[in-house]
Design brief:
Blueprint lengths: L2 H26 L6 H16 L7 H30 L1
């Protein structure tokens, strides 16, 4: 097992984490300062949910979920900065 597999699984989960965190942010009016933590928690949860569907051990899916959450929070921050630049 190498890191390539973890990153490939995380790439698939990033879109799901982004979508779920955006829905939660708009539904429950979560403050934007808590979005990175929320994205990581959602990523870990998605990794655990996807674990029975995969052939990988649970720790690999947890790590992939963690990476997906970090990537989603970074994408969220980049989109926020790009939106702010577009308004100026």
């Amino acid at each position: 097992m190498d890191l390539t597999n973890i990153f490939m699984i995380a790439m698939v989960m990033v879109a799901i984490v982004l979508a779920v965190s955006e829905v939660l942010k708009n539904t429950f009016k979560i403050n934007t300062q808590y979005m990175p933590i929320t994205s990581v928690v959602i990523g870990i949860f998605i990794g655990l949910v996807c674990w029975p569907l995969s052939e990988y051990p649970p720790y690999v899916m947890l790590m992939a979920g963690f990476v997906a959450g970090l990537t989603a929070s970074g994408t969220f921050d980049l989109l926020k900065v790009a939106k702010k630049e577009g308004e100026q």
